[in-house]
Design a protein that fits this description.
This protein is an alpha/beta fold. It has 13 helices and five strands. The longest helix has 19 residues.
Length: about 375
Amino acid sequence: MRYPQGGGLTDAERAGRERVRLQAVAAFEAGEKSREIAAALRVSERSVKRWRRQWREEGLAGVASKGSPGRPRLSETQIARLERELERGPLAHGWDDQRWTLGRVKTMIGRLFHVSYTVEGTWRLLRRYGWSWQQPARRAIERDDDAVELWRREVWPRVRAPRRLNNAWVVFEDEAGQSMTPPRARTWGRQGTTPVVRVRGRGSGRVSMAGMTCYKPGERPRLIYAIREYRGRKDEPKGFGWKDYRDLIIRARIQLGGPIVLVWDNLRMHLVAPLREFFEVNAVWLTVFQLPTYAPDLNPQEGIWSLVKRGIGNLAAADLSQITRAVKRRLKMLQYRPEVIDGYLAGAGLSMALSPDRRCDENVRPLTSPGMAASSPCLC
């Protein structure tokens, strides 16, 4: 049996503990003090005192180990099967939602192995084998995991092709927004009383954010962003238009001082005709790749937005300007933390390290949307 999380003992370990207790009994009979016994046996003085009390009340039988109450009643093969069934999810076993509870796992064990566990015993079993109560990540049902893996395996090596990256930056772009209602964040509170965060019920508006995480081998990663406020006024744009994206790309090229390999998602505004024309005209310094559909985990900029929103959690904003200032402050701080920006690239499962045995197929052009011409030929 294996016990990666502790809580269970092998037969050899149990025999060793039994020997320690017998040595403690011999010391009790010799009249030694608890502190001396604890130091000699390398156990806590509290344990020695407990053993002494049990020895006085029940004799040698009171000191003897009762065994491990948390030892699993399932075999190694049954545990492996249980883990496989849990990984399939509750939907595969007839429940309406995708949430494993202790009661449901307890029921699963009874169905599969006809073994009865208590709720507390189920908790101990799951903890012992590396399971914990977690906040799940959301993922779109429409997502094609095979397409995502294909992009990571086949397209990403072309994005960071050796000859291209001699003078070009790989730039990941993404957008986010924040309303007057701040994200909820955990806080300390008195047990039995739910903490209350008071926010403004009135007022409208939204802060739109567009950001770029920029990478190049041998260079410090950069973060470039643009902020726009929407206050609900007449004829005021609600978000970024194609001209805003064009200007952001041009600004990135000026700040980075070199060609750009742009990687972004399939947002409708990214695919409009004026932007396609802009890409074709500037194909000398701009190459565009598109991410698979419903694959935000491939974009390091998504991690930046998550960190920004976590930083403004429970913010009691008086007006939209305060939200804007808080967002800008967080983004400005991240610009001076290149190790964080670099970490989100690794978190996406991507690396700027060049593989010497990998060669780009010259007949394959960068990914584009249907009907959209490639921005530039492959530069490998």
